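Milestone 3.1: sequence recovery, worked example.
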């Protein structure tokens, strides 16, 4: 059953080596992510499932130990998903997408060693009902399950944002922040798939997996951080 969840953004700029001189601008977001992972550890899960955006449709599975890097950003920094148990991961032929690499970096940064880890990637084309069904399947696994849910809100909050300014972005992000802070599974499940795609939201599908996983729980939500640096909406929340 699902016992806790943490929601974090996953821009590569969250990694100080990637952000370089701009790193201090996301110090508050990094601190909030650290606090969120602390909530997961305190729940003492038997397994941590990292859910994040995938390049394809998915679901794409990333076993513990799957490697990723930030070399595409000119940074000589490698990561691996979950604690190093001294064994080689299953050969999938894939590296972690950048969003999952950020999640792996967060876990390494906080010294995660509390439970085995696996990743599940879901693409932006996956419909809401399939996301919910995937979440229910994850929550139905034996033992105590925790989720680390990765994804960003809209990328259209300012003129200089990656998706330029869209007046629909701020209201969309505000509703996402409210729903995450209230652990409102109904509101997350109802997010508009087409609008989320137009606003370049990477977190829609992962959040709807969370909504499915939490359907039959009584988890309470707390919004730890919400802002839009660089014109992209970032939110950090915990459900426990």
């Amino acid at each position: 059953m699902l016992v806790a969840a943490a929601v974090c953004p996953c821009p590569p700029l969250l990694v100080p080596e990637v952000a370089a001189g701009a790193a201090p601008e996301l110090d508050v977001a990094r601190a909030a992510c650290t606090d969120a992972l602390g909530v997961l550890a305190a729940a003492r899960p038997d397994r941590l499932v990292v859910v994040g955006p995938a390049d394809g449709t998915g679901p794409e599975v990333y076993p513990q130990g799957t490697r990723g890097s930030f070399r595409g950003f000119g940074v000589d920094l490698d990561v691996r998903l979950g604690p190093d148990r001294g064994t080689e991961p299953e050969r999938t032929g894939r590296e972690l997408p950048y969003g999952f690499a950020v999640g792996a970096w967060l876990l390494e940064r906080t010294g995660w060693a509390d439970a085995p880890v696996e990743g599940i990637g879901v693409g932006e084309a996956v419909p809401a009902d399939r996301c919910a069904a995937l979440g229910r399947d994850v929550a139905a696994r034996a033992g105590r399950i925790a989720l680390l849910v990765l994804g960003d809100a809209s990328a259209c909050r300012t003129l200089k944002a990656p998706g330029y300014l869209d007046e629909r972005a701020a209201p969309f992000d505000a509703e996402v922040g409210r729903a995450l802070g209230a652990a409102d599974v109904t509101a997350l499940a109802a997010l508009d798939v087409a609008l989320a795609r137009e606003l370049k939201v990477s977190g829609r599908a992962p959040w709807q997996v969370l909504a499915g996983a939490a359907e039959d729980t009584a988890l309470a939500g707390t919004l730890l951080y919400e802002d839009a640096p660089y014109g992209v909406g970032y939110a950090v929340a915990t459900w426990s």
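The beta strands are 2-8, 47-53, 60-62, 67-69, 78-80, 117-122, 145-150, 221-227, 234-239. The first helix runs from residue 16 to 19.
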